[in-house]
Model the fold of this input.
Amino acid sequence: MIELNESFLIQLVNFFAMIVFLNYFLFKPVMEIADRRNKALRGLSTDAAKAANDADKSLKEYEYLGAEAKRATSAILIAARQAAAAEQEKILKDARQRYAETVEAALAKIKADIKGVEAGLKGESEKLSREMAVRLLGREMR
Done:
């Protein structure tokens, strides 16, 4: 059986002293280090979540800006195509008008040249007719 004597009391006091000593110099510092590490890990976890959230926001903003840029580019291209088509139509209209004016001027010049040639030929034909009559008749005509 267990004897309750002096050595038991000394061992009991020694045991409690060792618990107090270990608690003060070992358990509390180790627990404080573990708490600091847990707090740091929680902080890193929070920072990582915040960074992921910021990255998601940045990605969404980038995608939105990309879509806006595409829309703006499309609008600019459509406007440029419409302006080019209008300019092309204007150039074609001007070219057709100049063509019509050139053809008209050429026809007027040809008509004037024909009248001039006809008048010249008329005078020449009368001269040739007189000459032929003189040669055939052998005398001058009046």
Observations:
- The chain has a mean pLDDT of 90.
- The two ends are 186 Å apart (CA to CA).
